[in-house]
Design goal:
This protein is mainly α. The protein has one domain. The protein has ten helices and no strands. Helix 8 packs across helix 9. The longest helix has 23 residues. The radius of gyration is 18 Å and the shape is globular. The model has no long low-confidence stretch (mean pLDDT 76).
């Protein structure tokens, strides 16, 4: 569901930006981002933001997991499902919008949605080990880093963009 809402929202943003002056450049930035020209300060700010949201999710992981796996039992225990859903979606939205500015829609979508979808398809119950979304995302990242263009090519691209 999250992936569908995200994809529709991204498509709507492309349609709106397309009507603006210099819309083509804005669409390119929206889709691809400016990841090669990110400053250390921007990375530090995002790391702090993601760390805070990650800590919050760790602190409330049990109710979030319970309402995801067994909403009826969670409701019977007195958990307010809508409030927990709202907390999750607001924090998810913050992560997505802060990430798209730097990395672009395609990369953000790939890192946030694809590992979770693959983990869900490969196992019926969440596992902390090999089939967790975090593990799959990390392995995919390492594969990409190992098979990416040589560092000199990335540096040249960054210099050309500035």
């Amino acid at each position: 569901m999250i992936g569908i809402v995200y994809a529709v929202s991204a498509a709507a943003a492309v349609l709106v930006v397309d009507r603006a002056p210099q819309g083509g450049e804005h669409i390119k930035t929206l889709l691809v981002g400016s990841i090669l020209t990110v400053s250390g300060r921007e990375v530090a700010e995002l790391a702090l933001l993601y760390g805070l949201i990650g800590a919050l999710h760790v602190a409330v992981r049990r109710p979030l997991l319970e309402i995801s796996l067994d909403p009826d039992a969670a409701r019977a225990r007195g958990l307010r499902l809508r409030a927990w859903d709202l907390l999750f979606y607001v924090t998810f939205g913050i992560v997505v919008t802060s990430s798209v500015r730097l990395a672009g829609v395609l990369l953000v979508f790939s890192y946030l949605i694809v590992p979770a979808a693959v983990a869900t398809a490969s196992t019926m119950a969440p596992q902390p080990g090999r089939n967790s979304p975090f593990s799959m995302g990390s392995r995919g990242s390492m594969f990409g880093v190992r098979n990416a263009a040589p560092p000199a090519t990335a540096r040249a691209a960054a210099v050309r963009r500035s």
